[in-house]
Write a structure and sequence with these properties.
By secondary structure, the chain is an alpha/beta fold. It is built from 12 helices and 8 strands.
Length: 316
Amino acid sequence: MMEIAIVGGGLMGHGIALVLALHGHGVRITDTDAQTRARVPGLMASALATLQEEGAAPDGWDSARLARAVRVEAELEPAVTGAGLVIEAITENPEAKRALFADLDRLCPADAILASNTSYLDVFPLIPQARQARALVMHWYTPPYIVDLVDVVPGPGTDPAVIAAMRDLVLGLGQVPIVLKRFIPGYVANRIQSAISAVVYELLDADIAAPREIDDAIIHGLSLRIPILGHLAKADFTGLDLAQRAMANASHTAQGAPMRSKTLDALCAEGRTGVMAGRGYFDWGGRAPADLFRERDRKLLALKRAMAGIGRMEGT
């Protein structure tokens, strides 16, 4: 287990601290704002209570134990001294981050790993050169104690062993690390979400459908399949040759231009057209397509029943 410091106690910082503490890490958290620091224990205790109510918290935890596991510090130096990992979770302001990383360079052990929770900023030019080999992005999603995805992103000079170690740390939290090959603003999930948002706002502005209808399309169409199949496995089940033709014929892209994908074209040229061919984006292990369809259908029906039981968030 590591001693981990979190700089920034706001929406993301306190949630990341909770995840780390519940899995046995020693956590220190600091923020320059006194009111934010004062809110941290209560916010974590409230989130822990919700997890306990839903049976999603480890046994033996209560607010008193959590307060012992997460130390709130008023100053940066005692928070980061001796920490093996420091996670920066402050405002998305490049100059504020540059100043913080300069302070961390001065205060942290030479072998400390410096991670940023930034969503869109390329922080690597803001980090001192001497720290580049042990610097990376570790980006959680809100709320981090429920959403399992964590982007693990190297900089141009990051030691691959650091990426492997942080991937293993995330796995040890019971979460899902996505290791990118290089930094790109928004990573994967946020960029896909941005693309969805662009189309949704286009539909709204053109008065094509009302908000309820758009959300119904997402909940009852996209959302039913995505948790089981993702997007690329879903394409394998649909057939990549069909996806290729649909893409070429699409008229609802930017400026109505046909779309192409060199990755998709290459797979189709190799005969890797999805489940019916045994391989597409994924290798389906020589299993009969009928067996794969039956497994998919059973999972979809189970999810459909669960979603009906949970219900949706209703607005008027």
